[in-house]
């Protein structure tokens, strides 16, 4: 079976799907071999921040896509945090509480920032997510997420500008992104 990631074909964004050999990205599972999430969203965020300073919006979307593609590829969540369908796209309230004071400014981190990831396979998985989405701005990632079913379905009955805290169900994320990679 081939592993796929991040990989949708939106003409507007000119993004191509990538096929990866199974051995290039190993699923991230718990220490006991179970399928429980093993990472903390804050550590995943630190990993992305070690790549570049970025806005809170971009950080939220990178974490969202990491969770979505892990669900699609491996059937289990990467971390135990959920996302809500906010006006500007998927938002983890847990992550929001950590970085909210940055507002719209780029979050800067010391050059020596190190994420404490529980599983060594997580870094290679996150690298692929970053290679796929890292070149987009937070506003572009917001626009992409607004075109996808998990966010829009969670906002049924709300306009794009309405306040909404509906949870984006993991099973919808798994199904939607899984469908894009033939799962």
Describe what this molecule looks like in 3D.
- Helices cover 41% and strands 7% of the residues.
- The longest helix has 19 residues.
- The chain has one domain.
- It is built from 7 helices and 4 strands, in the order ββααββααααα.
- With 183 residues, it is mostly helical.
- The N and C termini lie close together (10 Å).
- The strands form 2 sheets. It has a two-stranded antiparallel ribbon with strand order 1-2. A two-stranded antiparallel ribbon has the order 3-4.
What key phrases describe this protein's structure?
globular, two-stranded antiparallel sheet, 183 residues, 7 helices
Distance linking N and C termini: 10 Å
With helices defined by DSSP (H or I, 4 residues minimum), what is the helix count?
7
**SS class:** mainly alpha
Kindly state the percentage of residues in helix. 40-55%
Give me the count of strands: 4
DSSP strand content: 5-15%
Question: Which residue ranges are poorly predicted, with pLDDT under 50 across at least 5 consecutive positions?
Answer: 1-33
Topology, element by element:
Layout: E1 3-5, E2 18-20, H1 41-49, H2 56-74, E3 84-86, E4 89-91, H3 93-99, H4 120-133, H5 138-146, H6 149-154, H7 170-180
Antiparallel strand pairs: 1-2, 3-4
Helix pairs in contact: 1-2, 2-4, 2-5, 2-7
